[in-house]
Amino acid sequence: QVQLVESGGGSVQAGGSLELSCRASGYIYSRPCMGWFRQAPEKAREGVAAVASDGTTFYARSVRGRFTISQDNAKNILYLRMNSLKPEDTAMYYCAAVGDGNSYCGGDQQQYNNWGQGTQVTVSA
Fold first, then answer.
1. Distances from the Cα of 72 to the Cαs of 19, 53, 62, 118, in angstroms?
2. Which of 10, 38, 45, 58 could be joined to 50 by an S-S link, Cβ 3.0–4.6 Å?
3. Which residues pair with 104 in a beta bridge?
């Protein structure tokens, strides 16, 4: 059973930075694509960033140049470094992974079947 546990959320002023972490466990085969999603109140969940096992990355246009996704394969930890945060970045952030054997890596949440519980990020103006 794959388990994903996020941490690192919090409150910050606009222009500030936060780093989210996601500890993964339970993979039987090679690490699949892992990503970060977010959901603001009364809005649909959206893909933020994703990284494949070969290091290929995907970023949503709204965060490109401000957010960086990375992973520590030895420790099975996924990171999301968020700089120059804006109030519109306020949301619950979720870590997710596609299933074993799925080569997809991008922002389509339908491709991800393992999800963490989420960590709240609040950015004040």
1. 14, 11, 25, 20
2. 58
3. none
Provide the token pair at 113.
Answer: 């079947």
Q: What is the pLDDT of residues 25-59, one digit of tens each?
A: 886 556 689 999 999 999 999 999 999 988 899 99
Would you state the structure tokens that stand for residue 13, as one six-digit string?
Answer: 């002023």
Question: Strand, helix or coil at 111?
Answer: helix
Which has the higher per-residue pLDDT, 116 or 27?
116
Report d(CA 51, CA 68) in Å as an integer: 10
Would you state the structure tokens that stand for residue 42, as one six-digit string? 């009364």
Task: Please report, as a single letter, which amino acid is at residue 17.
Answer: S
Instruction: Return the number of other C-beta atoms located less than 10 Å from residue 99's C-beta.
Output: 14
**39 contacts 46 by C-beta, under 8 angstroms:** yes
